[in-house]
Every structure is written in structure tokens, then in C-alpha cells.
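subagent[fold] <- orchestrator: predict structure for attached chain, return C-alpha cells only, no commentary.
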Amino acid sequence: MKYKSPGRSNPFALLPFIIFIAIYLGAGLYFQSAGVSMAFYQFPSVTAMFIAVLSAFCLSRDPVMFKFGIFSKGAGNDNIMTMLMIYILAGAFSAVAAAMGGRDATVNLGMSLIPPQFLTVGIFLISAFMGTATGTSMGTVAAIIPIAAGMAEKSGIPAPLILGACVSGAMFGDNLSMISDTTIAATRTQGCELKDKFKMNFLIALPAAILTIAVFLMAGTPSAVLSGNTDYTLLKVLPYMAVLLLALLGVNVFLVLVSGIFLSGFIGLMDGTLSVISFAQQIWTGFTGMSEAFFLALFCGGISEMISYYGGIAWLIEKLQGNIHSSRTAQLGIAVLVSLVDSATANNTVAIIVSGGVAKKIAARFHVDPRKSASLLDIFSCVFQGIIPYGAQLLTAAALASQSGLAITALDIVPHMWYCFFLAAFGLLSIYVPYADYAVRKNPWKWEG
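subagent[fold] -> orchestrator:
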């Protein structure tokens, strides 16, 4: 059955996400002010999202099963199902590799090779390199977080800080990679070349990355690092090395994670740390350990579709277009538009696709270079995807960290997403002081018509 949107804008359609944020953040802040430990764990985020789902079903008088069809379309779309499969496979790989001793061996190897004061920066750079090479922030987070969590546990560096370094690096790669789906979506919707968008985007992202490295150098001081046993067996490090290598070679993320699961299991069976039964049990433990991220992504996908269907996204676009009067406000409008849509959909690729057509029209009307509009779409979708606590990257990071024994929520990581904060600042600066435009001045855009 096809579900054709009524076509009208409706600000009340945004109510479900407002309810979720109000409940989740409100409850966490209340318990934190009351001095309750683990304040943001007291009211489960999945329960808050479930209440938001119920509110979404009150957006119209349509039959319940009709609305459920809209919800199911969003929850079951390709992007959501891909994320869900990555969640459970990443959880299984993390659990099996940890059970056979691979995580501890990899952590010890890293601590042996990287000077203590550079551990946090090292995680950021490794994640940035992998994210840029593979074009997937989700794959990067899935591969690196278990190692980062183990380093946090053994080094004494605050866990949210080192996890923030990992996700920050992943978002750097997602933003700049030539094969990232966000880069492809941004350039296709704006009608510009990948290489031109990269040049302009790089001049905005590079200073943000340099400042991020400086912050991580100061935050991860040697005095914060504790000494400990750093013995390791290279054989047990092999699954993580294989996962990184396969990802860098461009192998499909599903095949990468499945290979990691069975390579870890094989090594565990060979050295006796795992039996066939315990191997199977660890896979199941990994699956169930990702349940919070799984349900949040599922609910979020369904709510996003309902918000779009009932006019929430259309209302955002309509209001923003009415406040654009110059090239500068056009650029700012494009940045705000994609940021709000990402906050409503919790998917940066979807946010770019939804905003891209309108952004192109705004850019053409106010003579904004398409290479600049493509950069702004990619930059600000990545900024907000990296700081919303219900985004896939932070949910995955928190879930994998919890599997490693760390009591961390996605919201705990947000204050340490320095790269996203700096990227937003330089993105805004590039609008008012167009220094990044230098990258394409030798090849000015020729407007048609």
C-alpha cells in the first residue's frame, strides 16, 4: 500500500521528538540534580522513545493500522535495517573477541606502542583515518570502540573522553571521505564534483581537527594514565587487525563483521578459551547487548517517517525559506535546515537527501556556489549526527562500551565530541568569512540561466 503525504506543513508533527527529548533529558537532569548516581540510566531511553511513538500515533484521526503502516515503512527502510544489522553484528564481534581475550590483547598492544599521553589522540587519528578510507562512521565505531573502551578501563583516562575521540574521528572520516554516502548524497543533490566539494570541505574540517587534537592532548595528560600489565599475544590481536584491514580494503561491512566473529571464535576454539557452546552463547550475548540501540533506532525510524508524512519536515522547510533574503542567510538557512532535519530523522544521509532539493533551489536563487552548499549540507548533518544522543553512532558507542563493562550513556559522550563542536564553529565562520572558497576560486562556478 502506498502512503501519500497530505502535502501540508504541520508543526505539531514534530511533537514526538520534542516529547522524547523532554522526557529523556528532563528525567536525567532531574536525577542528576538530586544527586542520584547514573542519573541518565534511571528513566530508560527506550521507554522515553516508546512514549514518543505513542504520541506519534495521536498525530491524526487516521485508522490505527494506517498509521502503523506509515510507522512500519520508516522502521523497515533500507537505512534502518542496515543499521540494525550492523548493531547486532558489531555486538557479537565485540562479545566473542572479548571472551577469547582479543580485546585485552589489542588494548595491551596499543598501550605498549602508543605513548600514554597520546592514547586519546591516537584513537582519534586511527578512527579518522579509517573513517576517511572506508567512508563509514558506523563501521569505524563498531571496529574501534571495543579497543577504545578497553584502553579507557586500563589507562585511567575518562571513558567518555576516549569514546568521544573515537566517534569524533569517525565523524571526521564520514564528513570528508570520497566514498561516504553523505558525500555522495550532498554532491549529487547539489550537482557538483566530489573533488571540488572535498577541497572546500577540507579547509573547514582541517582546523577543526587540529583544535580537536590539541584538546585531546591536553585532556589525556600523562598523569591521568596508570601503569599496568601490558602482556599480549599477537594471535589474539588478529581478529581486530583483520577487521581493520578488510574495512580499509573496502569489503562490505557485513562481511567484515561476520569474518571478525568467526575468526575470533576459531582462535578461541583453538586455544581452549571458547567451546562450541560458549562461542554460540557469546554471539547471543552480543546480540542482546545491543538491544537498547536496536530498539531506539527502530522506533526512531518509524517516528521519522510519521513526522515527515504528517508535515513536520515540510513545516521546517517552509519556515526557513521565508527567512532567507541574501547569499549569506541562504547559506545559514541551508545549514539550519539540514541540522533540524537530522535532529528529526537521526540519520545524516537521509537528512541530506530530504534537504538537498530545497537547498539546491535556495543556492540557485541566491547564487550560493553548489560546492559550498554541498559542503554545508555534509558538515552540519555530521555535526548534529555526532551530538544528538539518539543518533546511531553514539548509541552504538555507548552500547559497545557497556558490553565492555563501562557504565556509559550516549549523553555522557556528547560533551566530549569536540570535533563536532569545532566543525560547527568553522562551518559558521566559513559563511561569514568565506576563507574556504579559496579552494575553488581558480575554477569558479558558472551559473546557467
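orchestrator: received. Logging for downstream: The chain has 21 helices and no strands. The CA atoms of residues 188 and 374 lie 9 Å apart.
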